[in-house]
């Protein structure tokens, strides 16, 4: 079972997800990439700057596949 650790989950709580219960979606723009060779002295140093941007959302497709677990008694 894959495990992910997050410091935003409160102490005493955990979550379990079924494999097909949560999807990561992007908006209509998807993932955008821009590059530039025209910043400062990048051309003379043979450098290329890149920027990648995406907007993501998590969709719950099967609510019964997401379970909150109390890890303390």
Key terms:
two-stranded antiparallel sheet; elongated; 73 residues; 4 strands; mainly beta; 0% helix
Structure explained in plain terms:
This protein is mainly β and 73 residues long. The protein has one domain. The protein is 0% helix and 51% strand. It is built from no helices and four strands. A two-stranded antiparallel sheet has the order 1-4. The model has no long low-confidence stretch (mean pLDDT 88).
Mean pLDDT comes to 88
Please summarize the sheet with the most strands. Answer: 2 strands, antiparallel
Give the overall form.
Answer: elongated
Into which percentage range does the β-strand content fall?
over 45%
Between the first and last Cα atoms, what is the distance in angstroms?
24 Å
User: How many domain units?
Assistant: 1
Count, helices: 0
Which spans have pLDDT < 50 for at least 5 consecutive residues? none
Strand order of the largest sheet: 1-4
Count of DSSP strands:
4
Short description:
This protein is mainly beta and 73 residues long. It has strands at residues 13-17, 22-36, 49-60, 66-70.
Layout of helices and strands, plus pairs?
Layout: E1 13-17, E2 22-36, E3 49-60, E4 66-70
Antiparallel strand pairs: 1-4, 2-3
């Amino acid at each position: 079972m894959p495990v992910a650790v997050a410091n935003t989950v409160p102490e005493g709580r955990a979550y379990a997800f079924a494999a097909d219960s949560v999807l990561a979606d992007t908006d209509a723009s998807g993932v955008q990439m821009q590059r530039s060779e025209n910043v400062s002295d990048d051309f003379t140093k043979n450098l290329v700057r890149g920027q990648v941007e995406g907007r993501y959302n998590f969709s719950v497709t099967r609510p019964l596949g997401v379970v909150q677990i109390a890890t303390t008694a």
